[in-house]
Fold these 4 entries.
Entry 1:
Amino acid sequence: MRTEELINALVTDEPSTRKRFDLVLAFAVALGALVAGSLFFLAIGFRPDIDEAVKSAPFLFKFVVTLSLATSGVGLCSRLARPGVPTKEWGYALAIPAILLALAVFAELMLTPSSSWKPSLIGSNSRFCLTLIPLLAVGPLACLLLALRQGAPTRPGLSGAVAGLAASGIAATFYAANCTDDAPLFVATWYPLAIAMVVAVGYAIGSISLRW
């Protein structure tokens, strides 16, 4: 249970309390990224053609999408942890990765022959995508949920789900460096499915662990 003093401080959004929680959240993000990164480099690693891949726009675009998801998710977590603080701006920010992907898919459909659409969508790593993103997200999700417990979220399920989005963004950023499927059709299909698994887990855990 939170103390009345903590809750009142969070409700009034006192600068000292806000700064303290933001430091906790920043530490959670850094620690979660460290855990995910350690697992990535120890067990997965970069794709074999990484030297050539970094010169490819579709490969680099994946990181624009995943990092925008991670950033907007963390920003919304920060707001949800403080009662009464507006969340609309960061909620809108969560639409950025979806819009970027939609535009990229549209461009791919316009610029490539229809015969290539199905192979691009199916790719060759869908099973790995559905497995590795949730696996890499475990550490970041745990860290973010622990950080949120230092706040006073009034919507525990939603807060847990958003923590899942942020954790997925971190995990997907690492996984994207291994995945050899760069087509927007693939990314827009399989990455969201993997992310949805983490969001569901975050919602379920948050609904219980973030109550106060």
Entry 2:
Amino acid sequence: MDTKEHKAHRPRQSGSKKDKKTKKQKKQQEKNPKAFAPLSGRKADKLARRKQEIIQNKLHVPLVDRTPTEPPPVVVAVVGPPQTGKTTLIKSLVKRYTKHNLTETKGPITVVSGKRRRLTFIESANDMNCMIDIAKVADLVLLLIDASFGFEMVSEPDLPETFEFLNILQTHGFPKIIGVLTHLDKFKNNKTLKVTKKRLKHRFWTEIYQGAKLFYLSGVINGRYPNQEIHNLSRFISVMKFRPLVWRNTHPYLVADRVEDLTDPEEARKNPICDRTVTLYGYLRGTNMKSNMKVHIPGVGDHYLSDVTVLPDPCPLPDKVRKSLSEKQKLIYAPMSDVGGIMYDKDAVYINVPGNFTKENNEDGDEHEVEQGPGEKMVIDLQDAPETLASRLKETSLSIFANSVPIKGAEVEESQHNGSTRSLDDDESDRTRRKVAFENEENGTYEDFENDRINLEENKDNNHT
């Protein structure tokens, strides 16, 4: 009798059993960590020392957190040589955060960048004194570098270099720095662009630290940098954490975003070098500031404060915490840059009234059909009135009885004047002239009419008798 051959076993090629078996085999092939422990005691000591050094480098001295419940805006300084795109970068960031198009970047510009963060952008001039003042207050520095030229070494001794500004930052606590390479569109060869990026990155790391963040901005489109590149930079700025510096954490300081001269204009005209009374507006940082406190104003000197007043926040944070900011919560406050309807000049304040209650006509002369509320309709109807309310009252009439002659408003106004005066309109001017009516005129006065009436009644009585 022939023996029957059994079916050969075929292992699974896929499925959960196959994955379970493969995972078990990999676990058996893992290396034993104890097998690679240092055999030498000297090597073990070096590894232990290195591990402790890494742990100690991560530690830092704890500082007192003086940040209030509603923190002041983070000061972001945009620094770089001329013609590197500082103004264009600020305009692009403001457009990204608030949807506003800036015509000029003058003075500090404060925007709401998140639910718990605001940013104040300041453009630094190519001046040593300005750079020193910026280094004292900046929390974050955007260092712009022209990639087509490299790190600039100026020929004039009065103008500062890029590396000199880094030394200034080191003297004042060395705040956070982000490098930004611009004018990358001038490179036509991709290989040259790649080599230049790598060379500038390592040179930037040598001056700052290994791994310093460096962003790349290509050409300008419609007066701004590309949206995706600005989006990456703005997201990184919004989530960056700042460690408080010792000097700023123990002293009060204020970045003035608006200045008003309250000196009497007549006194300033008579004596241009007289003592001035100046009001400075801004967000207070650091510790508290008191009245009659001695402060230092860069370029002016030491002075005493006469008064310190708490004002409403011109650019407040959103009241309700949501997942994202709404369009109404993306505020901007730039009093020197003609934004928000108010612009502060040297000697005046200009307020731009929006066309909420004005008629806007298109090129064809037809009015725009926009949905309006009842209040807006009432205001626009008042604008349609061809004459004033007083002139309309003169044309109105009122009937006291059913069949009586209606009395007009103009007649009532004339009857209120007695017979001693009457009004005449002067065609040559807008003013109203009133002429005096004397007794010898044919109209007479009220006393003449009364005497005539009495005489007529006496004559009637005599004739009757």
Entry 3:
Amino acid sequence: MLETIAGIIHKVTPWAAGIVIAYYAHSSIQSLAGHATFADIGIKFLADFRISEVVSYAVGAGGVIYGARMGKLKKDAIERMAGRIKELETKMDPGRSSSRLTPRGETRSEDKP
């Protein structure tokens, strides 16, 4: 019996939440009907965008995200290979001095101006 009630509640809850959200959305839209608001101004602003502008912003944002991701991947690869490279270089020249970069290949904070 308890499982049946729990099953019904489990199925009804998402629908009830959707109905409550729809009710409040309808109420807020109905109260703004016929009034000039910031929401109206925002919608007009968004409607004024041309497809070419949206595409150019999307491509620009995509380029920034791509560049950040590639930078992280490069630093991850440097960190992964740094130990082996240091070992091989020390074998070739035991008196070799270190560049004193971080394991990710970045300049140490105390060396920055």
Entry 4:
Amino acid sequence: MNKKKLEGILFFIAGILFFISAIIKKDYMSIPLGCCFVILGISRSRKEK
């Protein structure tokens, strides 16, 4: 597993955690930030293929 793929996985996990915390706290302003992390994670993990 190379560094870019690992970085992408970490961004994806961070995005999912932002979604979960936004739903639990009912802080819906954090959802776009979580979405950005998910998109960044997917693009980083697929860029090296």
